[in-house]
Amino acid sequence: MSQNYTASNSPPIAPESYNEFPSNKYVESVSDVSHQVDESEKNGEIQPFFYHETPPVLSVADAIAQMLVSLGVNYAFGVAGGAMASLWGALSNSNIQVLNFRHEAGAAFAATEAYFASDRPSVVFTTAGPGITNALTGLFAARGEGAKVILLSACTSAPQRGRWAIQETSTYTLPSGGIFTPGALFNYAITIESAAQLPQIFRKLALALAQPGGFVAHLSIPTAVQTSLVEGVAFPQLDVSHCQVTPSSEAIAKSVELLSSGPFAIWVGFGARDAADEIRQLAERSGAAVMCSPRGKGIFPEDHRQFVGVTGLGGHASVLTYMEQQRPLHTLVLGTRLGEPTSFWSSALVPERGFIHVDIDPEVPGVAYPHVETFGVRSDIKTYLQELLQHLPGNPLAHLSFPRPEHQAIVPASEVDYPVRPEVLMAAIQKIVVEGSDAIVMAECGNSFTWSTHLLQFAQANRYRVSTGVGAMGHAVTGVLGAALANNTKAVGIVGDGAMLMNNEISTAVKYKIPAIWIVLNDARYNMCHQGMKILGLKGADATLPPTNFAMIARGMGAEAIVVVRESDIEPALEQAIASNVPFLIDVVIDGDRLAPSGGRNKSLAAQGIKSNSAQTPAKPVSFPSV
């Protein structure tokens, strides 16, 4: 199947020829650069433009900082150290806002969420040794989530390598493969040993950042190289536009043929977040049922009559009811890999005649369900749907009704409304935060994820964020800072007490006056583990935590905070947090014995003949997020 690659209409990156990134020449971003031409411009062709003034001499650190500004970077998140003092100074004196975090993993999570909130690449900076290794989990998440993030790290200078330098970072102490070279973690990685490498590095970064999809890079700069001078280095003239991957006419024709053959469903993932309008048009024209992955919540309005529910972890049994009662001939998959958190690889979600799977990565279609017939289309989702809508006729089955996501009625509290039921908390968050504000909502992994994904409803894209590729504890706890900063609005993290104890950045939020809000589900347990082990019948494992007063901790760091122990106090606390102009924490003592919603998963397991109790031997190993 042939594919076409075309550039969008966005302005090109820096068409001028750079001699040395003059310090008085800043450009705001890849997409904001205007053409600069001289009198030799003829017939609409832009000729090379050269600065005629003599540029100042820069250090490598200064040149890298200015290079990042020209690539559109607004924010750098990290933890400083002696080995990267020059680089830290250069970043701090550039147009990039530098935020010093308390842990490198938190900085990387925040950088990831800043990218998704702004659609601009972000930077993580670390010192040598543990600075790099501390950041790896967050960078692993950035790669898995599809973010554009650049790691700047310090490493040991060549003369000191192998001599037990402080925090030595070299092949004597760390494996070079995968950390300092491209691989599963980094799309691009290089150690800068000379200023002469900078033009090629700039070119590679600019071209990669203009491509669709994620990009995680690592530039490691030895301490001595950071202060070396950039002399006689010419930076390349670049004319780079943001690219789109467009479908071939054959792919569109085949899609129309398959989708016109009978009823179909639409399965929406996070990769389709920029095509919300086109998805709604397609659904309403065709009468198709729409379901979404946990990361895809809100791309198609969850209150729409054609929405049948969320699939996967924290999802709805209504999806499986639909597949059982009105199984479609095909399912159009848009921007989701259909991995375990989205599908559990359940055969109950397979349509009668297979998938039409659209993704910018040609290796995605057919991987999650290798035994199912799949027509793969490599394309940008928005472009594909625009083409499809021009050729696909309306469907006379638009009058069909579909099952709706189930939401149990909340029984009024007794006179003693303590502790707080999680479902009552979610209802209040829906009213005050989701419907009453424009805040971004993030949910931490664990039961926070399942409660939020199952019970909260969104009618707009880009309001809800969860991590399913990595699902690291601490992602939402710290990522909420990046989301609030880059989106210039409130961001709310719904998190567990275990994650809050592991890696929070309250102190950082206070320092930079970032309006982050933490809602802590405080049950003194790693409760997904506690409940999961109990359901599996595995005894003896201890997942409890000593009771913690998170409000006291937050106030001790300078934030505002309140403890909620009664259901009647939830809404006032949420209103106070939304109205506050400073970081705010709500410590909610919840009923840890309320089972997190897993009806959709349990029904999926039952459909596959899998049991998850100790009295029966499971057909295959079952882990507690899967029960």
Gist of the model:
This protein has 20 helices and 22 strands. It is α/β, with parallel strands linked by helices.
Which labels suit this protein?
thiamine pyrophosphate, alpha/beta, Thiamin_PyroP_enz_TPP-bd_dom, 20 helices, Rossmann fold, THDP-binding, 22 strands, DHS-like_NAD/FAD-binding_dom, 627 residues, 6-stranded parallel β-sheet
Q: Can you describe what's shown?
A:
The protein is α/β, with parallel strands linked by helices and 627 residues long. It folds into three domains: 11-243, Rossmann fold (3-Layer(aba) Sandwich); 247-399, TPP-binding domain (Rossmann fold); 422-596, Thiamin diphosphate (ThDP)-binding fold, Pyr/PP domains (Rossmann fold, 3-Layer(aba) Sandwich). 31% of the residues lie in helices and 16% in strands. The protein is built from 20 helices and 22 strands. The strands form five sheets. The chain has a six-stranded parallel β-sheet with strand order 4-3-5-6-8-7, with helices on both faces. The protein has a six-stranded parallel β-sheet with strand order 13-12-11-14-15-16. A six-stranded parallel β-sheet has the order 18-17-19-20-22-21, with helices on both faces. Helix 1 packs across helix 2. The longest helix has 16 residues, at 130-145. It starts with a strand and ends in a 20-residue tail after the last helix. Residues 1-54 and 610-619 have low confidence and may be disordered.
